[in-house]
Design a protein that fits this description.
The protein has helices at 8-15, 19-27, 45-55, 59-68, 72-93, 97-107; strands spanning 34-35, 41-42. By secondary structure, it is mainly α. It folds into 2 domains: 8-56, no CATH class; 62-106. A two-stranded antiparallel sheet has the order 1-2. Helix 1 (8-15) packs across helix 2 (19-27). The longest helix is centred in the C-terminal third of the chain and has 22 residues, at 72-93.
């Protein structure tokens, strides 16, 4: 049996997209299509169904992603740790902004006149 290829509009209906979106995806190689000799695109409905199936996410993958996101408390704890480290570095350097500007100014080479 010969499988008929479908148009942009028919593919859009099958995929619940607009014809323009279908053309955009296909023109960038993101959607399987056949370029006809007259440069029109056609789509094999079976290829489109396989493409949709390949884009589905597994529920366990989604859950694993959400499980990998740190909790608000963990993020706040890490922020507190980073602030403490930053303050320790500032104390270790024992330098103020004014002192830093002064040292930078002293380090500049004099311009010859």
């Amino acid at each position: 049996m010969i499988q008929l290829l479908i148009t942009d509009s028919q593919a859009a209906e099958l995929l619940a997209l607009t014809p323009r979106q279908v053309m955009w995806f296909a023109s960038r190689g993101l959607l399987p299509s056949v370029v006809m000799p007259n440069k029109d695109r056609r789509y094999d409905p079976n290829d489109l169904r396989r493409w949709v199936a390949s884009k589905k996410t597994n529920a366990s993958d989604v859950q694993a992603f959400f499980d990998s996101i740190p909790t608000r408390e963990a993020l706040l704890d890490r922020l507190h740790e980073l602030r403490e480290e930053s303050n320790a570095v500032k104390k270790l350097l024992n330098i103020t902004k004014r002192e830093a500007r002064k040292k930078i100014a002293e380090a500049k080479l004099p311009t010859g006149s």
